[in-house]
Amino acid sequence: MHAHRTPAQHTCDVLVIGGGVIGLVVAWRAAQRGLRTAVADPAPGGGAAKVAAGMLAAVTELHYGEQTLLALNLASARRYPAFTAELEEASGQDTGYRACGTLAVALDADDRAHLRELHALQQRSGLDAQWLTGRECRRLEPMLAPGVRGGLRVDGDHQTDPRRLARALLTACERAGVVFHRSEAARAVLARGRAAGAELADGTRVVAGQTVLAAGSLSGRLAGLPEEVLPPVRPVKGQILRLRVPRSHRPFLSRTVRAVVRGGPVYLVPRENGELVVGATTEELGWDTTVTAGGVYELLRDAHELVPGITELPLVETLAGLRPGSPDNAPLLGPTEVPGLLAATGHHRNGVLLTPVTGDVMAEVLATGRLPDEARPFSPLRFTPVLQEQSA
Ligand code: GLY
Protein backbone atom coordinates (compact mmCIF):
# COMPACT_ATOMS: atom_id res chain seq x y z
CA MET A 1 0.00 0.00 0.00
CA HIS A 2 1.28 3.46 -0.89
CA ALA A 3 1.37 6.04 1.86
CA HIS A 4 -0.69 9.12 0.99
CA ARG A 5 1.63 12.08 0.57
CA THR A 6 0.40 15.62 1.13
CA PRO A 7 1.89 17.97 -1.45
CA ALA A 8 4.55 20.30 -0.05
CA GLN A 9 3.25 23.82 0.41
CA HIS A 10 5.25 27.00 0.54
CA THR A 11 3.93 30.48 1.21
CA CYS A 12 5.55 33.73 0.10
CA ASP A 13 4.71 37.31 -0.80
CA VAL A 14 5.99 37.09 -4.37
CA LEU A 15 6.39 34.06 -6.63
CA VAL A 16 8.45 34.70 -9.76
CA ILE A 17 7.82 32.13 -12.48
CA GLY A 18 11.05 31.92 -14.50
CA GLY A 19 14.64 32.24 -13.34
CA GLY A 20 16.34 33.83 -16.35
CA VAL A 21 18.01 37.22 -15.89
CA ILE A 22 14.63 38.97 -15.88
CA GLY A 23 13.07 36.67 -13.27
CA LEU A 24 16.22 36.80 -11.15
CA VAL A 25 16.53 40.58 -11.18
CA VAL A 26 12.86 40.93 -10.23
CA ALA A 27 13.33 38.44 -7.38
CA TRP A 28 16.53 40.12 -6.15
CA ARG A 29 15.01 43.59 -6.15
CA ALA A 30 11.76 42.36 -4.56
CA ALA A 31 13.70 40.61 -1.77
CA GLN A 32 15.67 43.80 -1.18
CA ARG A 33 12.33 45.54 -0.56
CA GLY A 34 11.58 43.09 2.25
CA LEU A 35 9.18 40.88 0.28
CA ARG A 36 9.43 37.13 0.93
CA THR A 37 10.25 36.00 -2.57
CA ALA A 38 10.45 32.64 -4.35
CA VAL A 39 11.51 31.67 -7.88
CA ALA A 40 10.20 28.61 -9.74
CA ASP A 41 12.54 27.35 -12.46
CA PRO A 42 14.07 23.89 -13.05
CA ALA A 43 17.40 25.50 -13.99
CA PRO A 44 17.63 29.06 -12.68
CA GLY A 45 20.29 31.21 -14.38
CA GLY A 46 19.56 29.63 -17.77
CA GLY A 47 17.14 30.89 -20.40
CA ALA A 48 17.87 33.15 -23.34
CA ALA A 49 20.70 34.96 -21.51
CA LYS A 50 22.78 31.77 -21.67
CA VAL A 51 22.85 32.25 -25.43
CA ALA A 52 22.81 36.07 -25.70
CA ALA A 53 25.85 38.14 -26.68
CA GLY A 54 25.13 40.81 -24.07
CA MET A 55 25.27 43.92 -26.25
CA LEU A 56 23.81 46.96 -24.51
CA ALA A 57 22.88 48.43 -27.88
CA ALA A 58 20.25 51.11 -27.22
CA VAL A 59 21.65 53.36 -29.97
CA THR A 60 22.94 50.93 -32.63
CA GLU A 61 19.80 48.76 -32.47
CA LEU A 62 17.42 51.72 -32.83
CA HIS A 63 14.56 51.01 -35.24
CA TYR A 64 11.92 53.22 -36.84
CA GLY A 65 8.73 53.23 -34.79
CA GLU A 66 10.50 52.15 -31.59
CA GLN A 67 11.16 55.57 -30.04
CA THR A 68 9.08 54.73 -26.93
CA LEU A 69 11.17 51.64 -26.37
CA LEU A 70 14.30 53.75 -26.93
CA ALA A 71 13.51 55.80 -23.80
CA LEU A 72 13.34 52.63 -21.68
CA ASN A 73 16.46 51.17 -23.32
CA LEU A 74 18.40 54.38 -22.61
CA ALA A 75 17.12 54.52 -19.03
CA SER A 76 18.40 50.98 -18.48
CA ALA A 77 21.74 51.60 -20.23
CA ARG A 78 22.34 54.61 -17.94
CA ARG A 79 21.75 52.38 -14.89
CA TYR A 80 24.26 49.73 -15.96
CA PRO A 81 27.41 51.05 -14.25
CA ALA A 82 25.73 51.51 -10.84
CA PHE A 83 23.70 48.31 -11.25
CA THR A 84 26.89 46.36 -12.06
CA ALA A 85 28.75 47.80 -9.08
CA GLU A 86 25.88 46.96 -6.70
CA LEU A 87 25.43 43.44 -8.09
CA GLU A 88 29.16 42.69 -8.02
CA GLU A 89 29.28 43.87 -4.40
CA ALA A 90 26.19 41.82 -3.46
CA SER A 91 27.38 38.65 -5.20
CA GLY A 92 31.16 38.96 -4.87
CA GLN A 93 31.38 38.14 -8.60
CA ASP A 94 32.55 39.89 -11.74
CA THR A 95 29.77 40.32 -14.33
CA GLY A 96 31.99 41.13 -17.32
CA TYR A 97 30.55 44.63 -17.91
CA ARG A 98 32.79 46.38 -20.40
CA ALA A 99 32.39 50.05 -21.38
CA CYS A 100 33.97 49.50 -24.79
CA GLY A 101 31.58 51.20 -27.26
CA THR A 102 30.41 49.93 -30.64
CA LEU A 103 31.35 50.47 -34.28
CA ALA A 104 28.63 49.79 -36.87
CA VAL A 105 30.11 49.54 -40.36
CA ALA A 106 28.95 49.29 -43.97
CA LEU A 107 30.43 46.96 -46.58
CA ASP A 108 28.66 48.11 -49.74
CA ALA A 109 26.58 50.99 -51.07
CA ASP A 110 23.28 49.54 -49.82
CA ASP A 111 24.64 48.94 -46.30
CA ARG A 112 26.07 52.46 -46.35
CA ALA A 113 22.69 53.96 -47.29
CA HIS A 114 21.07 51.93 -44.50
CA LEU A 115 23.62 53.16 -41.98
CA ARG A 116 23.18 56.78 -43.14
CA GLU A 117 19.44 56.43 -42.50
CA LEU A 118 20.13 55.01 -39.06
CA HIS A 119 22.48 57.90 -38.35
CA ALA A 120 19.80 60.43 -39.37
CA LEU A 121 17.29 58.72 -37.07
CA GLN A 122 19.82 58.71 -34.23
CA GLN A 123 20.48 62.42 -34.71
CA ARG A 124 16.76 63.24 -34.78
CA SER A 125 16.46 61.27 -31.54
CA GLY A 126 19.26 63.29 -29.92
CA LEU A 127 21.64 60.33 -29.71
CA ASP A 128 25.40 60.39 -29.82
CA ALA A 129 26.82 58.72 -32.95
CA GLN A 130 29.67 59.86 -35.15
CA TRP A 131 30.01 59.12 -38.89
CA LEU A 132 33.46 57.75 -39.87
CA THR A 133 35.06 57.04 -43.24
CA GLY A 134 36.20 53.51 -44.02
CA ARG A 135 39.78 54.53 -43.30
CA GLU A 136 38.82 55.98 -39.92
CA CYS A 137 36.97 52.75 -39.08
CA ARG A 138 40.05 50.68 -39.88
CA ARG A 139 42.24 53.00 -37.85
CA LEU A 140 40.02 52.22 -34.84
CA GLU A 141 39.76 48.50 -35.63
CA PRO A 142 42.67 47.33 -37.83
CA MET A 143 41.19 43.82 -38.25
CA LEU A 144 38.28 45.20 -40.30
CA ALA A 145 38.10 44.24 -43.97
CA PRO A 146 39.75 46.70 -46.38
CA GLY A 147 36.40 47.06 -48.20
CA VAL A 148 34.61 48.77 -45.26
CA ARG A 149 32.90 51.85 -46.77
CA GLY A 150 32.16 53.86 -43.65
CA GLY A 151 30.67 53.45 -40.21
CA LEU A 152 29.08 54.85 -37.11
CA ARG A 153 31.05 55.18 -33.92
CA VAL A 154 28.76 54.84 -30.91
CA ASP A 155 30.78 55.24 -27.75
CA GLY A 156 27.78 54.71 -25.44
CA ASP A 157 26.75 51.17 -26.52
CA HIS A 158 28.62 48.78 -24.24
CA GLN A 159 28.43 45.08 -23.33
CA THR A 160 28.12 42.74 -20.40
CA ASP A 161 28.59 38.96 -20.13
CA PRO A 162 25.07 37.51 -19.77
CA ARG A 163 26.25 34.20 -18.31
CA ARG A 164 28.22 35.92 -15.58
CA LEU A 165 25.35 38.33 -15.07
CA ALA A 166 22.97 35.40 -14.53
CA ARG A 167 25.37 33.69 -12.11
CA ALA A 168 25.85 36.87 -10.11
CA LEU A 169 22.10 37.47 -9.94
CA LEU A 170 21.58 33.91 -8.72
CA THR A 171 24.08 34.40 -5.90
CA ALA A 172 22.68 37.84 -5.04
CA CYS A 173 19.20 36.31 -4.84
CA GLU A 174 20.40 33.49 -2.59
CA ARG A 175 22.17 35.96 -0.31
CA ALA A 176 19.03 38.13 -0.19
CA GLY A 177 17.00 35.12 1.01
CA VAL A 178 15.13 34.26 -2.21
CA VAL A 179 13.81 30.68 -2.08
CA PHE A 180 14.43 28.60 -5.22
CA HIS A 181 12.01 25.87 -6.31
CA ARG A 182 13.93 23.91 -8.92
CA SER A 183 10.82 22.80 -10.74
CA GLU A 184 8.66 24.11 -13.55
CA ALA A 185 5.41 25.96 -12.83
CA ALA A 186 2.78 23.51 -14.11
CA ARG A 187 -0.24 25.77 -13.64
CA ALA A 188 -1.17 29.10 -12.18
CA VAL A 189 -3.61 29.01 -9.28
CA LEU A 190 -6.52 31.45 -9.18
CA ALA A 191 -8.61 31.94 -6.04
CA ARG A 192 -11.78 34.03 -6.27
CA GLY A 193 -10.54 35.69 -9.46
CA ARG A 194 -7.14 36.54 -8.00
CA ALA A 195 -3.76 35.00 -8.78
CA ALA A 196 -2.63 33.03 -5.76
CA GLY A 197 0.62 31.35 -6.83
CA ALA A 198 1.26 28.16 -8.77
CA GLU A 199 1.40 24.39 -8.67
CA LEU A 200 4.80 23.11 -9.66
CA ALA A 201 5.63 20.02 -11.70
CA ASP A 202 7.17 18.37 -8.60
CA GLY A 203 3.84 18.69 -6.76
CA THR A 204 4.78 21.68 -4.60
CA ARG A 205 2.07 24.31 -4.14
CA VAL A 206 3.45 27.80 -3.85
CA VAL A 207 0.91 30.17 -2.34
CA ALA A 208 1.80 33.77 -3.14
CA GLY A 209 0.28 37.20 -2.61
CA GLN A 210 1.61 38.29 -6.01
CA THR A 211 2.76 36.15 -8.94
CA VAL A 212 5.12 37.42 -11.63
CA LEU A 213 5.17 35.75 -15.02
CA ALA A 214 8.80 36.05 -16.17
CA ALA A 215 9.30 32.88 -18.18
CA GLY A 216 10.62 34.47 -21.38
CA SER A 217 9.22 32.90 -24.54
CA LEU A 218 7.38 30.30 -22.39
CA SER A 219 5.34 33.00 -20.64
CA GLY A 220 2.40 32.63 -23.01
CA ARG A 221 1.96 28.91 -22.27
CA LEU A 222 1.23 28.69 -18.55
CA ALA A 223 -1.84 26.56 -17.82
CA GLY A 224 -4.53 27.73 -15.43
CA LEU A 225 -4.94 31.25 -16.82
CA PRO A 226 -7.66 32.54 -19.16
CA GLU A 227 -6.37 32.69 -22.77
CA GLU A 228 -6.75 36.48 -23.02
CA VAL A 229 -4.52 37.03 -19.98
CA LEU A 230 -1.56 35.07 -21.33
CA PRO A 231 1.14 37.44 -22.60
CA PRO A 232 1.30 37.47 -26.43
CA VAL A 233 4.95 36.40 -26.59
CA ARG A 234 6.41 34.07 -29.19
CA PRO A 235 9.80 32.38 -29.56
CA VAL A 236 12.20 34.09 -31.98
CA LYS A 237 15.14 31.81 -32.60
CA GLY A 238 18.71 33.11 -32.58
CA GLN A 239 21.76 31.02 -33.45
CA ILE A 240 25.07 32.28 -32.14
CA LEU A 241 28.75 31.25 -32.16
CA ARG A 242 31.56 31.60 -29.70
CA LEU A 243 35.16 31.82 -30.90
CA ARG A 244 38.30 32.19 -28.81
CA VAL A 245 40.97 34.75 -29.47
CA PRO A 246 44.33 33.24 -28.41
CA ARG A 247 46.61 35.57 -26.44
CA SER A 248 48.94 35.72 -29.43
CA HIS A 249 46.14 37.38 -31.47
CA ARG A 250 45.07 39.99 -28.90
CA PRO A 251 43.92 42.68 -29.13
CA PHE A 252 41.76 41.37 -31.96
CA LEU A 253 38.85 43.78 -31.70
CA SER A 254 38.64 46.44 -29.01
CA ARG A 255 34.90 47.13 -29.21
CA THR A 256 31.72 45.53 -30.54
CA VAL A 257 31.72 45.56 -34.34
CA ARG A 258 28.50 45.13 -36.24
CA ALA A 259 27.01 45.52 -39.70
CA VAL A 260 23.99 44.75 -41.80
CA VAL A 261 25.13 42.25 -44.40
CA ARG A 262 22.67 41.24 -47.14
CA GLY A 263 19.85 42.68 -45.09
CA GLY A 264 20.66 40.77 -41.87
CA PRO A 265 22.52 42.10 -38.83
CA VAL A 266 25.75 40.45 -37.77
CA TYR A 267 27.77 41.41 -34.73
CA LEU A 268 31.09 40.49 -33.13
CA VAL A 269 31.35 41.06 -29.39
CA PRO A 270 34.88 40.76 -27.96
CA ARG A 271 35.19 40.01 -24.24
CA GLU A 272 38.17 40.88 -22.12
CA ASN A 273 38.78 37.15 -21.41
CA GLY A 274 39.31 36.41 -25.12
CA GLU A 275 35.82 35.11 -25.94
CA LEU A 276 34.46 36.48 -29.22
CA VAL A 277 30.71 36.11 -29.70
CA VAL A 278 29.35 36.17 -33.24
CA GLY A 279 25.61 36.56 -33.62
CA ALA A 280 22.88 36.13 -34.38
CA THR A 281 20.26 34.73 -36.70
CA THR A 282 16.62 35.83 -36.35
CA GLU A 283 14.24 33.00 -37.22
CA GLU A 284 10.50 32.56 -36.71
CA LEU A 285 10.49 28.76 -36.36
CA GLY A 286 8.43 28.14 -33.26
CA TRP A 287 10.15 26.17 -30.52
CA ASP A 288 12.96 24.79 -32.67
CA THR A 289 16.43 25.28 -31.16
CA THR A 290 18.45 23.23 -33.63
CA VAL A 291 21.83 24.64 -34.60
CA THR A 292 21.85 24.32 -38.39
CA ALA A 293 24.71 24.17 -40.87
CA GLY A 294 22.99 27.00 -42.77
CA GLY A 295 22.78 29.24 -39.71
CA VAL A 296 26.42 28.70 -38.78
CA TYR A 297 27.49 29.14 -42.41
CA GLU A 298 25.67 32.47 -42.76
CA LEU A 299 27.06 33.84 -39.51
CA LEU A 300 30.62 32.84 -40.40
CA ARG A 301 30.28 34.07 -43.99
CA ASP A 302 28.98 37.50 -42.90
CA ALA A 303 31.41 37.84 -39.99
CA HIS A 304 34.26 36.86 -42.29
CA GLU A 305 33.31 39.59 -44.75
CA LEU A 306 33.56 42.07 -41.90
CA VAL A 307 36.66 40.71 -40.18
CA PRO A 308 38.50 38.20 -42.42
CA GLY A 309 40.90 37.17 -39.63
CA ILE A 310 38.16 35.29 -37.73
CA THR A 311 38.77 32.16 -39.80
CA GLU A 312 42.01 31.59 -37.86
CA LEU A 313 40.25 31.49 -34.49
CA PRO A 314 39.10 28.31 -32.71
CA LEU A 315 35.32 27.86 -32.86
CA VAL A 316 34.38 26.76 -29.35
CA GLU A 317 30.59 26.78 -29.23
CA THR A 318 27.47 26.93 -31.37
CA LEU A 319 24.12 27.45 -29.69
CA ALA A 320 20.56 28.51 -30.37
CA GLY A 321 18.12 30.24 -28.04
CA LEU A 322 14.66 31.74 -28.10
CA ARG A 323 14.05 35.46 -27.67
CA PRO A 324 10.65 36.30 -26.17
CA GLY A 325 9.19 38.38 -29.03
CA SER A 326 6.14 40.57 -28.43
CA PRO A 327 3.80 42.12 -31.04
CA ASP A 328 5.48 45.56 -30.78
CA ASN A 329 8.99 44.32 -29.89
CA ALA A 330 8.69 45.94 -26.45
CA PRO A 331 8.43 44.22 -23.07
CA LEU A 332 5.31 43.69 -20.95
CA LEU A 333 5.91 45.11 -17.49
CA GLY A 334 3.51 45.34 -14.57
CA PRO A 335 0.04 44.25 -13.51
CA THR A 336 -2.20 42.23 -15.82
CA GLU A 337 -6.00 42.37 -15.62
CA VAL A 338 -5.99 39.45 -13.15
CA PRO A 339 -5.43 40.95 -9.69
CA GLY A 340 -2.19 39.70 -8.17
CA LEU A 341 -0.74 38.59 -11.52
CA LEU A 342 2.04 40.66 -13.06
CA ALA A 343 4.17 40.21 -16.16
CA ALA A 344 7.86 40.87 -16.80
CA THR A 345 8.40 39.33 -20.21
CA GLY A 346 8.50 39.99 -23.96
CA HIS A 347 11.93 41.65 -23.85
CA HIS A 348 12.74 40.28 -27.31
CA ARG A 349 16.19 41.57 -28.42
CA ASN A 350 16.75 43.67 -25.29
CA GLY A 351 16.52 41.38 -22.27
CA VAL A 352 20.06 41.89 -21.05
CA LEU A 353 19.96 45.63 -21.71
CA LEU A 354 16.61 45.99 -19.91
CA THR A 355 17.58 43.91 -16.86
CA PRO A 356 18.36 46.84 -14.50
CA VAL A 357 15.28 48.92 -15.28
CA THR A 358 13.02 45.83 -15.22
CA GLY A 359 14.21 44.99 -11.70
CA ASP A 360 13.59 48.53 -10.50
CA VAL A 361 10.13 49.07 -11.96
CA MET A 362 8.87 45.62 -11.00
CA ALA A 363 10.11 45.93 -7.41
CA GLU A 364 8.39 49.30 -7.15
CA VAL A 365 5.04 48.00 -8.36
CA LEU A 366 5.33 44.86 -6.22
CA ALA A 367 6.16 46.85 -3.10
CA THR A 368 3.84 49.84 -3.56
CA GLY A 369 1.24 48.85 -6.16
CA ARG A 370 2.34 51.79 -8.31
CA LEU A 371 3.96 51.22 -11.72
CA PRO A 372 6.61 53.93 -12.28
CA ASP A 373 5.85 56.39 -15.11
CA GLU A 374 8.74 55.16 -17.27
CA ALA A 375 7.15 51.68 -17.41
CA ARG A 376 3.55 52.75 -18.11
CA PRO A 377 3.81 52.55 -21.93
CA PHE A 378 4.81 48.90 -21.43
CA SER A 379 1.81 47.80 -19.39
CA PRO A 380 0.53 44.37 -20.47
CA LEU A 381 -2.93 45.95 -20.63
CA ARG A 382 -2.02 47.49 -24.02
CA PHE A 383 -2.69 44.06 -25.53
CA THR A 384 -6.11 43.64 -23.88
CA PRO A 385 -8.67 44.97 -26.43
CA VAL A 386 -11.61 45.07 -24.00
CA LEU A 387 -9.76 47.26 -21.54
CA GLN A 388 -8.51 49.50 -24.33
CA GLU A 389 -12.08 50.03 -25.60
CA GLN A 390 -13.28 50.88 -22.09
CA SER A 391 -10.60 53.51 -21.59
CA ALA A 392 -11.15 55.05 -25.11
N1 GLY B 1 20.16 42.12 -29.39
C1 GLY B 1 20.78 41.16 -30.19
C2 GLY B 1 19.97 40.04 -30.61
O1 GLY B 1 18.86 39.87 -30.16
O2 GLY B 1 20.42 39.28 -31.45
Helix content: 25-40%
Radius of gyration: 22 Å
Shape: globular
Mean pLDDT over the full residue set: 95
Overall number of domains: 2
Sheet having the most strands: 8 strands, mixed
Identify the CATH class of the largest domain. Alpha Beta
User: CATH superfamily of the largest domain, please?
Assistant: FAD/NAD(P)-binding domain
For the secondary structure, the number of strands is: 18
Q: Which ranges are low-confidence, i.e. pLDDT below 50, for 5 or more consecutive residues? A: none
Describe the protein's architecture and organization.
The protein is α/β, with parallel strands linked by helices and 392 residues long. β9 and β10 (194-200) form a beta hairpin. α1 (21-32) runs parallel beside α5 (162-175) and α1 packs across α7. The model has no long low-confidence stretch (mean pLDDT 95). The radius of gyration is 22 Å and the shape is globular. It is built from 8 helices and 18 strands. It starts with 8 loop residues before the first strand and ends with a helix. The longest helix has 25 residues, at 67-91. It folds into 2 domains: 9-49 and 164-233 and 327-391, FAD/NAD(P)-binding domain; 102-155 and 235-325, D-Amino Acid Oxidase, subunit A, domain 2 (D-Amino Acid Oxidase, Chain A, domain 2, 2-Layer Sandwich), CATH 3.30.9.10. Strands 1, 2, 8, 9, 10, 11, 17 and 18 form an 8-stranded mixed sheet that branches. The structure holds glycine (GLY). The site of glycine (GLY) has 7 residues, from loops. It comes from Streptomyces cinnamoneus (Streptoverticillium cinnamoneum). Pathway: Cofactor biosynthesis; thiamine diphosphate biosynthesis. Its EC number is 1.4.3.19.
